[in-house]
């Protein structure tokens, strides 16, 4: 059983009230949440230390300008936080951060995680072209009615891990029909109970979970099955790789926004990956023509080999691809297969080692010598 904190305000107002309470009572030093930064609806993650600065905060806004896990990593890559910070984050962002912590790219201490049952987010372009605001009514109606919301990221439509059991406080959104007037916050950990103690609202005992979550799980699984079926890259061999990755222009935007790619200098951006003139000449002699930039398929295969075990399916990669390669779907499909093979689920247990960093003599004997 969990503690349920029920607040008689809409979910957005209640979330801001919780953040303000944590700041005013000096329970946290600052909070990280989505914030509106200009009249043109520029949205970014902001680090806020005073409750009056929360006036423009939009903690539940259906937008992910970048995967917050990467930002949390940057804050704590050198040392742990000296004082607590409250973080409003989506499940895939928390999972990404935990994967980075496993790689010594951040520290979990003194973070208070506030998450929610996630309906998904809209692609970046909807906020750039100004159409996102017009979709908010549809978004919240779909959330109340447990629907897969049209026009959100493809990765979100097929995400089956839309609840974070690692969050200290979970705000129930999916399937809640009274989101405009009431907010149910589940205090999921002892830390969550401690920090929320004294917050205005009604406390009761209630098991976390609902019919809405189960229904959404079923709908997302069906959508995932359909989406993965359309990407039958495994049956096409090299032709399949060319079909999808042949459009790549080599911008490497996908790796720049990926929360699991953390190297200061990626091999594919280094001089080690540059082609020598002698290689280009021999290729020209052999083929008669040479694509530039070269090695685009090798680049994607390299990324798959490195991060498929820890892909959290946030969809950032597809969102920034200028030639609309369904990168997220391909990586999620391959990632799911690799994760099942190793019986590993990314971002769940910070103590569980990453399979690629361990060696087990008895592993996969069926495909090699006994």
3D structure, described in words:
- It is built from 14 helices and eight strands.
- α2 runs parallel beside α3.
- The chain has two domains: 226 residues, no CATH class; 137 residues, no CATH class.
- An eight-stranded mixed β-sheet has the order 3-2-4-5-6-7-1-8, with helices on one face.
- It has 370 residues and is an alpha/beta fold.
Strand tally: 8
Helical stretch count?
14
Kindly state the percentage of residues in helix: 25-40%
Main sheet: strands, sense, barrel: 8 strands, mixed
Task: Look at the helices and sheets and give the structural class.
Answer: alpha/beta
Structurally, the number of domains stands at: 2
Low-confidence stretches: none
Query: So what's the overall shape?
Result: globular
What is the CA-atom radius of gyration, in angstroms? 22 Å
Terminal Cα separation, in Å?
Answer: 47 Å
Strand order of the largest sheet: 3-2-4-5-6-7-1-8
Provide the succession of SSEs.
EHEEHEHEHHHEEHEHHHHHHH
The percentage of residues in β strands lies in 5-15%
Question: How confident overall, as mean pLDDT?
Answer: 90
Attribute tags:
single chain; 370 residues; alpha/beta; 2 domains; eight-stranded mixed beta sheet; 8 strands
Summary of the model, kept short:
The chain is built from 14 helices and eight strands. The protein is α/β, with parallel strands linked by helices and 370 residues long.
List the SSEs and their pairings.
Blueprint: E1 2-7, H1 11-24, E2 30-36, E3 43-48, H2 68-76, E4 85-88, H3 91-102, E5 111-116, H4 124-128, H5 132-144, H6 154-157, E6 169-171, E7 183-187, H7 190-196, E8 202-206, H8 211-230, H9 237-245, H10 253-257, H11 277-287, H12 296-307, H13 316-320, H14 327-341
Parallel strand pairs: 2-4, 4-5, 5-6
Antiparallel strand pairs: 1-7, 1-8, 2-3, 6-7
